[in-house]
Design goal:
Two copies of one chain form a homodimer.
Chain A: H1 6-21, H2 28-35, H3 39-45, H4 49-61, H5 64-72, H6 77-94, H7 96-102, H8 106-113, H9 120-129, H10 135-151, H11 162-177
Helix pairs in contact in A: 1-2, 2-3, 4-8, 5-6, 5-9, 6-9, 6-11, 10-11
InterPro entries (chains A, B): Homeodomain-like_sf, HTH-type_TetR-like_transc_reg, HTH_TetR
Domain HTH tetR-type (chains A, B): 4-64
Protein name (chains A, B): TetR family transcriptional regulator
């Protein structure tokens, strides 16, 4: 049985409020009110709103390194590319709710840009596009990077279940990448 | 002979400063200093910084309607889709510098979201994805929308000339869209 911790309840309430008011428009007091606890109880879990946002986005950003590791362990560029595509697609599907809520939020973007795990994006891009890509590969790289990054937040996919979303996202990625 | 107007000089200086400091970090005084004119001279051209940003993004957003019009004038879904793809690709290529500078800027996003021409994005999405798209088409729609939107701002394509960028972007779009 999964017992929902106070921390998880807080993050769920915060994400709901971020979706309604944006991160900047959400205060720790609003999160406390939503949970029916005191602001001190919120502070007991998180020192600041940035810490709450980081607790939401860290699990996604911290997947980037292992995704690159697993792909680099494959033999051959085609297998590496397929592995890294599958890893990124799983990440997009797994964090589609977070992505739809927090994409484009200026507070989130500031924290993402400063996040140490972001360096792994360069590894992932090399795995997808090669180390010395020709112009066509560079453009395909830009399209797939933007397409995967934005897909989870796109209203067109809201009604799809995770399995359909994953299968079709993989298929779209393979269409773009195939040489 | 193309005479560069005071207005064009001002917009060029503003865009350079936006690239260096972000829109929020750029004041009308900084724009005046860059041009060697008084702040009053800047006010003579534009009432506010929002007006300057709108003068930069309006030409791009105001292309969305004509792009949809031209595509809707074609016969058959395939021809419409090809026409709208070509129109959006031209737009991305034509505004790649603006896109690389202003994408993700919170001031810009606020103005884009409130812009009346944005309603034409729905027409463009219908032209690309159809009126009652299946799950696969919806995912491809999300990928191509995000991919095209982000491609102009991607560092991977910075070194490409416009013609190469356009050709490869069209090719990538066709790969995703072909049924």
């Amino acid at each position: 049985m999964h017992v929902v911790s106070a921390r998880e309840r807080l993050l769920t309430a915060a994400l709901d409020l971020f979706a309604e008011h944006g991160v900047s428009g959400t205060s720790l007091q609003m999160i406390a009110d939503r949970l029916g606890v005191t602001k001190a109880a919120v502070y007991h879990q998180f020192q600041s709103k940035d810490d709450i946002v980081l607790a939401v986005i860290d699990p996604a950003l911290n997947r980037l390194g292992p995704i690159a590791d697993e792909a680099e362990a494959q033999r051959g560029n085609a297998a590496r590319r397929e592995q890294v595509l599958a890893g990124v697609v799983d990440l997009v599907v797994g964090f589609r709710k977070v992505s739809a809520t927090l994409s484009f939020d200026p507070v989130v973007m500031r924290l993402v840009r400063a996040h140490p795990a972001l360096r792994n994006l360069q590894r992932i891009r090399r795995l997808l596009g090669g180390t010395a890509p020709d112009p066509g590969s560079r453009v395909r790289m830009a399209v797939i990077a933007g397409g995967l990054m934005m897909a989870g937040a796109d209203p067109a996919v809201t009604g799809l279940d995770d399995e359909d979303f994953r299968d079709h996202l993989l298929a779209a990625g393979r269409r773009i990448l195939k040489g």
